[in-house]
Design a protein that fits this description.
- By secondary structure, the chain is α+β, with helices and mostly antiparallel strands.
- The chain contains five helices and seven strands; from the N terminus they run αβααβββαβαββ.
- Helix 4 (100-114) links the parallel strand 4 (83-91) and strand 5.
- Helix 2 packs across helix 3.
- The longest helix is centred in the middle third of the chain and has 15 residues, at 100-114.
- The protein is globular and about 40 Å long.
- The protein starts with 5 loop residues before the first helix and ends with a strand.
- This is Ribosomal-protein-alanine N-acetyltransferase.
């Protein structure tokens, strides 16, 4: 046998890359801006991430490619006890579909519950199927709609869905 087929080797390598989670840090701004730009039509720049990271109300986790590795995803939240809002969650396009988003959300809920937070809110573009699947899987429910809040790539209005999940 000459070894694994190329596609099977790729799958094995992809699964073998273990993701680690760590707290958000000041030096993460550039990497988070890069990941955010891959994920949204209007990406936030590094200066915006620096501002958010410096804000005492901001919480966040960064998923890295193994311990000490490069960032491959993040979740950024802000709020005041007992409520928190997910500002953004994004995963590097090469690592999407591997459970990183789920891992980030679940870890954030654990940390928030320990800090006394009771509810998490978010806003998501209607039709963002991957995000809606993640939020449904993690227990969020729709509590409202904002018609025409976003614009799609053609400039057409798209609703924002507001969602909530209790964590206590």
């Amino acid at each position: 046998m000459t070894g694994l087929p190329a596609w099977l080797g790729w799958m094995t390598r992809r699964r073998a890359r273990e993701v680690s989670l760590r707290a958000l840090r000041a030096g993460d701004a550039e990497a988070l801006a890069r990941i955010h730009a891959q994920s949204f039509r209007l990406g936030w720049d590094a200066a915006e991430f620096e501002r958010l990271i410096a804000n005492r109300l901001t919480r966040g986790l960064v998923a890295t490619d193994g311990p000490g590795g490069a960032p491959v995803g993040f979740i950024l939240l802000s709020g005041v006890t007992p409520e928190m809002e997910i500002l953004s969650i994004a995963v590097d396009r090469r690592r999407r579909g591997s459970g990183i988003g789920l891992k980030l959300v679940q870890a954030a809920f654990g940390s928030l519950a320990a800090e006394g937070y009771r509810a998490v809110f978010l806003e998501v573009e209607d039709g963002n199927a991957p995000a809606l699947r993640l939020y449904a899987r993690t227990g969020f429910r729709e509590i409202g709609r904002r018609p025409g809040y976003y614009r799609d790539s053609a400039g057409m209005p798209v609703a924002a869905l507001t969602m909530r999940r209790d964590i206590a």
